[in-house]
Amino acid sequence: MKILIVESKTKARTIAKFLKGFYIVATLGHLFDLPKKEFGIYLENGKLKAKYLPIKGKNKIIQRLKNLISKAKEIYVASDPDREGEMIAQEIKMLANKNNLKRIVFHEITKNAILNALKNPTKIRQNLVLAQKSRRFLDRIIGYSLSPLLWKSKIGESAGRVQSAALKLIVLREKEIENFKEKIFYRLIVNFGDFKAIYFENKNKFLFEDKNYLEKIKNDLDDIFLIEKIEKRKNEIKKPTPLDTALLERLSFLKFKIPSYLTMKIAQSLYERGLITYPRTDSFYLSTEFLKDVKNFLKDDYEKPLMKKSKFSQEAHEAIRPTSLKINQNLFKNNLEKLIYLLIYFSNLSACSKNALIEKTIVFLKNKNYKFLSQGEKLIFEGFLKYYPFKRKFIALPEIKEGQILKAKEIKIEKVKTKPPKRYTEESLIKKLKELGIGRPSTYSEIIKTLIKRNYVFKEKNFLKPTEAGKRVIEFLEKNFSKLMDLNFTAEMEKNLDEIALGKLDYEKYIIDFWKDLKNLLRSFN
Predict the structure, then answer these.
(1) Is 186 a catalytic residue?
(2) Which one of the listed residues 278, 285, 345, 424 is annotated catalytic?
(3) What are 511-520's pLDDT values in tens digits?
């Protein structure tokens, strides 16, 4: 008997449609984890050890897997192609204790991808297992060290490596808003009917604090304006990159206001049913086969996308894309699935199209010795905008010529108030976390979900606002554990996990050293 082990029933059903001669079984996620009610990590003779127990409710699945594995001549593990999936593969190996276990890796659930993976089995990538263990150990060490202090102080429920960094960003933004002081400026606007112009003194001086100054200019103007100069420039609008996880989460929120956790849940379902490639990825790379299909589909619109492979070449290495350019409307379970799929579909078409081209027109006008300026844009070549899910407006100027005289219909002074910075939305927080190198794209949705669940953050018109509890947690952690709360330090931890994944850093030494440093911090706190 040959068995193929995957994580989900949906994935098993999809593969069973085109793979014969295999018994396909699902683990339903992880099988083992650190204990829930005890620390579970310890040192033994200077070596790092961990206690792994069956996850609650998994005993029947574990026993079934043991029975199947004992009877199987060939065992293939096809868990997802990332650190999490590699850890699940390792758990199956712990369970199997057999040398004939083979690891297969694919990034889309299609017949060709599965058959090709079976022809090229590999081994469990231990560096990825160690990187996932390290992440889990760090989260456990930080959580079990800091959370009890929050409980005892009656400040909050929990602290976490990335969770607290994300909360800090939200709290800092709230402080910026609270400390914001409004400023009032004025600008002088001329309305010609079909376009407007603004008074300026130099390229950076359009707004003025002194309203009386503009009143004097306004009173000195007549209603006749001379078009002194017209400049036309052609500018390219760069097409977007293919989709990685963070970009998919951001675009889904911007376009449909779908929360990141729901976007990823839907994307995972689309992947497991063979409709898209693996949705947890840092890469912008698209396969040669897919690009051939897109080129045939787009024809003259096609241009090679802006893509790069992930530097972690042993991880999921392709961007999120459809597995086929043929859309079957009957495959979607609901409208949300259809929206996310079409977002992925058209984002990929736009990423593989040509840049758009616009003509920017800058008009300089004169009235006496006073200078005015107006700008407009006209789309010359649509390029990727033909397919891009977000529509962009271009406001062109009317047909006017240098030396032409125009009569103003209205000249007025407008008040402009400065605005406080906006609170983070899910989209802008994910963008910021990625810019800072904090966390992994696959974890962003869970981080935001946890902050809301812990009552550290709540949503107000889709903006993330900290609660008083959230503010107190950050105040406490900043005061007592400033090093851990340093955003650069958190980003450095993420880099170290990546180094472990690449086999460039000793995971055991890194975890032990971090643990010792944290213990010293805790001693100084006590």
Answers:
(1) no
(2) 278
(3) 999 999 998 8
